[in-house]
Write a structure and sequence with these properties.
- The complex is a heterodimer.
- Chain A has a domain at 6-87 and 156-243: P-loop containing nucleotide triphosphate hydrolases (Rossmann fold).
- Helix content of chain A is 39%, strand content 25%.
- Chain A is built from 9 helices and 10 strands.
- In chain A, α3 (95-103) crosses α4 and α5 (139-151) packs parallel to α6 (169-185).
- By secondary structure, chain B is mainly α.
- Helix content of chain B is 69%, strand content 5%.
- In chain B, α1 (2-17) packs across α11 (247-280) and α9 (208-233) packs parallel to α12.
- Classes of the chains: A alpha/beta, B mainly alpha.
- The A-B interface holds A 15, 49, 52-56, 74, 77-78, 80-84, 86-93, 97, 101-102, 104-106, 108, 133, 146, 149 and B 2-3, 6, 10, 13-14, 17-18, 230, 234-236, 238-239, 241-246, 416-417, 420-421.
């Protein structure tokens, strides 16, 4: 039986009476960039939070590289890195202090930590501004810092919730290139969610369209376009949600 | 351990670098209290100067040996403004034009009354032009002068009468035949010291210590609640919770970071308060020259250790409670509203037990107070001072049980998704209230 980077089986999640996920099942292969796309409230963030060990599924199973998320969350946290949507950084720390603080959890020796921080500096591309406190950063600078934080330790799995949300074109391209580079060269598996179909088409080798907590369609962007006779993922998305 | 230290350092940096906390908790007490003390001192000194330089007026309608003796006493070592007038009305008009705040009027018959063994009446007029403290104080100076004169004059008269009648005894004993000599029994020892002298001696420590503990707890609660609310407000909590570090380490890091800032805040408060007390009350003469070690009521090293344990368990429980509650807040402002509710049960015992003992309260109030865990912190610190170690240990056990319960709740919240999903606003409460 193959070990997937991510395996979701019949995942459900209730918040009170609201059913955020309704039996979602999907798998993500190692080194894959997998995109979850869907409208607001579709259940994307809920799914990402379950795999990030932040919340538990009401039923079904969630595994990361063979580790059960509910029963072995410590093991999962050692190999994953999670970037929440609209995440922030500690306002009173400098960008560099923030990276150093985070690096400390992934390496027990100084050389290892320095190497992680150096990588973080490179990814962020913030240069000398890393010496400044985060409370003086623009939204784009913060996001770059957070992307750097999420990728610098080369996790086996990076879960990125709307990685380019609120960024301008230049910064979005920088972030996308970094994600791509890490998946291609460092063997990082990426599970991301996005509203931006163009971004998903550019980045992801496999996509799941989710609506009302249900996976409506899954496949590579090419497969999905072919299956629905669409020119792009936006049309696929419209077709899928219309027929649902 | 490395992860714990990293979290503590991060917590301290985040809190200390926040200007609201740095200024509000650490710097303000050390700046504001001395300024307040200096302001009181300046005002008090100006009153003292006004009193020292104050003069009083004297107008007499009387004459005779006794009156002359009084006048000569008043004129000696005092700035007296004699009022030259034909009548009391004129004298009062003249007095109002002087800088004096008080005028002593010796009415006709004063000399004769005293000579005949009757009371001689003096009248003191206070001219309240500005209604300030110096004006009333100068009337008090006049009263004190006359009280002293009254004493020595009566002793002199009694001495003469005793000599004339050939009676035995001293004039002082005849004037005031009974004298009370106080003694206090403390820790089984009889000490020839009045109880109020001992009380004023120990008050500084037996009352200030519990207050300091409570103050530190209040600071720590605010810090812990702010810390968790900042994580929520800045949206860093989710990231923190997915790091490869145990939730208990995160909880311990947050508790310890808050303790560090609370300690800094308390030290700053104490230093500031010390300056305030020294400067604001520098004019108050020392009530006693006794040293605390003379009466064997200082806290022992063992007592200090027990107080340390009390402070520790109290702080941990308060912090765990603050973190558990603040998790339900969306931002720093609502977290601080929540802590306002938490601080109340901590402050009530501190205030109620400041000057009284739990046994002095009505039975129902006693039970009510004993249910509040922080009442035991106050009882324990006071008991440690009086070497009632059984009471201290009993209280420590009670607070520890409470602390473990609160820590369990906090750990539960931190280890489940509630840390992320819990939300409660005062608006929710309002809606529920309306629905009912």
């Amino acid at each position: 039986m193959p070990v997937y980077a991510i395996q979701a089986r019949e995942l459900t999640k209730y918040f009170g009476r609201t059913e955020a996920l309704r039996g979602a099942s999907f798998t993500v292969d190692e080194n894959e960039i997998y995109g979850l796309i869907g409208p607001n409230g579709a259940g994307k963030t809920t799914a990402l939070r379950i795999f990030s060990t932040l919340i538990s599924a009401s039923s079904g199973s969630a595994q990361v590289f063979g580790f059960d998320v509910a029963r072995q969350p410590e093991k999962v946290r050692e190999i994953l890195s999670y970037l929440p949507e609209e995440a922030g950084a500690y306002q009173q720390l400098s960008g560099l202090e923030f990276l150093e603080f985070m690096a400390g959890f992934y390496s027990s020796n100084k050389t290892g930590r320095l190497s992680i921080v150096e990588e973080g500096k490179r990814i962020s591309g913030l240069g000398d501004r890393l010496q400044d406190r985060v409370n003086g950063y623009s939204k784009g600078m913060k996001r770059r810092l957070l992307i750097a934080r999420a990728l610098m330790m080369k996790p086996r799995l990076a879960i990125l919730d709307e990685p380019t949300s609120g960024l301008d074109v230049t910064q979005s391209i920088h972030v996308r290139n970094m994600i791509r580079e890490y998946a291609d060269t460092q063997g990082v598996t990426v599970l991301l969610s996005s509203h931006n179909m163009l971004e998903v088409e550019y980045l992801c080798s496999k996509v799941a369209l989710i609506s009302n907590g249900i996976i409506m369609a899954e496949g590579s962007p090419d497969e999905l376009r072919g299956r629905y006779g669409a020119k792009n993922l936006e049309e696929v998305f419209m077709e899928v949600t219309r027929s649902a | 351990m490395r992860n714990l230290i990293a979290i503590i350092v991060k917590e301290v940096k985040e809190l200390v670098r926040d200007p609201k906390i740095l200024i509000g908790v650490v710097l303000m007490p050390i700046i504001i209290f001395p300024i307040m003390g200096a302001a009181i001192q300046i005002s008090q000194e100006s009153v003292e100067r006004a009193i020292m330089g104050a003069s009083f007026a004297v107008y007499t309608d009387d004459d005779g040996l006794v009156t002359d003796a009084l006048l000569s006493y008043l004129y000696r070592n005092n700035t007296v403004v004699p009022v030259d007038a034909g009548s009391l009305e004129e004298a009062l008009i003249g007095f109002k034009e002087t800088d004096s705040s008080a005028m002593i009027y010796i009415p006709s018959g004063y000399n004769d009354n005293i000579t005949l063994g009757q009371k001689g009446v003096l009248r003191v007029y206070a001219n309240l032009r500005k209604l300030n403290m110096a004006e009333t104080q100068s009337t008090n100076v006049v009263s004190s002068l006359i009280t002293v004169y009254n004493y020595y004059f009566s002793i002199s008269r009694i001495r003469n009468l005793l000599a004339q009648t050939g009676s035995v005894g001293t004039p002082e004993a005849v004037r005031s035949p009974i004298e009370i000599r106080y003694a206090s029994i403390l820790k089984g020892n009889v000490l020839d010291i009045p109880p109020n002298a001992i009380f004023s001696l120990v008050m500084g420590q037996s009352i200030m210590l519990p207050i300091m503990v409570m103050m530190m707890v209040v600071f720590a609660i605010q810090m812990a609640a702010t810390s968790i609310a900042l994580e929520k407000e800045q949206k860093t909590l989710e990231t923190l919770m997915t790091l490869p570090v145990s939730r208990l380490t995160i909880l311990a890091g947050k508790l310890s970071g808050s303790v560090v800032i609370a300690l800094a805040g308390s030290v700053s408060y104490l230093i500031g308060f010390g300056f305030y007390m020294n400067s604001a009350f520098s004019f108050v003469p020392e009530a006693t020259t006794m040293n605390i070690s003379d009466v064997d009521i200082g806290i022992t090293p063992f007592g200090m250790v027990l107080v340390g344990v009390v402070i520790f368990v109290t702080l941990v429980s308060a912090l765990a409670m603050a973190l558990s509650v603040a998790v339900f807040a969306d931002n720093v402002r609502s977290a601080q509203s929540f802590t306002g509710v938490l601080i109340t049960p901590i402050m009530i015992p501190a205030i109620v037990l400041m000057f009284s003992d739990i046994e002095m309260l009505p039975q129902s109030v006693q039970w009510l107070m004993l249910v509040i865990p922080y009442t035991h912190s106050i009882i324990a610190t006071k008991a440690a001072f009086l070497a009632n170690y059984v009471v201290v240990v009993r209280s420590i056990l009670f607070i520890s049980v409470w602390t473990l319960a609160v820590l369990y709740v906090a750990a539960k919240i931190f280890s489940t998704e509630r840390i992320i999903t819990a939300r409660f606003t005062l608006g929710d409460f309002g809606k529920r209230f309306k629905r009912k």
